[in-house]
Amino acid sequence: MASKLLRAVVLGPPGSGKGTVCERIARSFGLQHLSSGQFLRESLGGGDAQGGAAVGLKLSSCVMDGFGSILAVFLPLIPAPFHCGACTGFPRTLGQAKALDRICELDLVISLNIPFETLKDRLSARWVHPGSGRVYNMDFNPPHVQGIDDLTGEPLVQREDDRPEAVAARLRKYKDAAKPVIELYKSRGILHSFSGTETNKIWPYVYTLLSSKIPPVLLDEEN
């Protein structure tokens, strides 16, 4: 585990790569990755070790984008004291951010700014294995057999809100909800924004920022 306490949140619209960034942060700095969706799966009896944080993250997006706040489920499950962690999928609204304030003082907030067209392309090309939450992208991470999960051989599905006609509305909804959250953290001087079209190009800057706050346990090139 990290030798210095750090509480961080990664914000970003659907398809921005929050899950990938959080997984790299957890691995590189010895932090715990808290996913609101993972907690929800476990609380509903559907969680398992297989699939890990990525599974929880995808469910988080589904629940929080399509079915409203999971505030009542998520907050009681955050470990107390919550000392070292990178949280993703939460908070998504100003109300959630203020609720989080009551149990956790954040040290750092990372905001991922990805162009609209890039997000639209990513989401429209995304297919999911419903049973595990495994995600494929037909442009840069396709399954071995089109439409089939690599591990189970079961059919993949495209979420309704990943369909091209739904993506624009979904992104507008996120933008409207996230704006006051971002302004709140900006006013506190803990917001750090990173722009780009590829996670691999954004990551070195995130790594450098975090390295100034907490000693890494892995070199950047080991990721």
From TrEMBL:
<keyword id="KW-0547">Nucleotide-binding</keyword>
<dbReference type="GO" id="GO:0005524">
    <property type="term" value="F:ATP binding"/>
</dbReference>
<keyword id="KW-0808">Transferase</keyword>
<dbReference type="InterPro" id="IPR000850">
    <property type="entry name" value="Adenylat/UMP-CMP_kin"/>
</dbReference>
<protein>
    <submittedName>
        <fullName>KAD4 kinase</fullName>
    </submittedName>
</protein>
<dbReference type="Pfam" id="PF05191">
    <property type="entry name" value="ADK_lid"/>
</dbReference>
<dbReference type="GO" id="GO:0004017">
    <property type="term" value="F:AMP kinase activity"/>
</dbReference>
<keyword id="KW-0418">Kinase</keyword>
<comment type="similarity">
    <text>Belongs to the adenylate kinase family.</text>
</comment>
<dbReference type="Pfam" id="PF00406">
    <property type="entry name" value="ADK"/>
</dbReference>
<dbReference type="InterPro" id="IPR007862">
    <property type="entry name" value="Adenylate_kinase_lid-dom"/>
</dbReference>
<feature type="domain" description="Adenylate kinase active site lid">
    <location>
        <begin position="126"/>
        <end position="161"/>
    </location>
</feature>
<dbReference type="InterPro" id="IPR027417">
    <property type="entry name" value="P-loop_NTPase"/>
</dbReference>
